[in-house]
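Design a sequence for this backbone.
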């Protein structure tokens, strides 16, 4: 992870131990939304409720086709927001 990202996360209370071995559970849960479509939509809703006027959503998968399919499954839940 780039130093500027680490420094920003440190200002949010994360420590060097949180960055070791792929990241602590607390760190991963803070920066990655995961779960089914409703859980992901709820996480986006949290950002909107906190004042965001837009939220970027990116799917992670081994290939672009799988990422696209994930976003297509998520789209109906996001439209309801």
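Sequence:
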């Amino acid at each position: 992870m780039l130093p500027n990202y680490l420094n920003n996360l440190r200002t949010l209370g994360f420590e060097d131990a949180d960055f070791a071995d792929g990241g602590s559970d607390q760190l991963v849960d803070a920066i990655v939304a995961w779960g089914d479509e409703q859980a992901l939509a709820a996480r986006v809703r949290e950002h909107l409720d906190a004042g965001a006027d837009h939220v970027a959503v990116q799917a992670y998968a081994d290939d672009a086709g799988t990422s696209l399919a994930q976003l297509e499954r998520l789209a109906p839940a996001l439209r309801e927001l």
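The chain has a mean pLDDT of 95.
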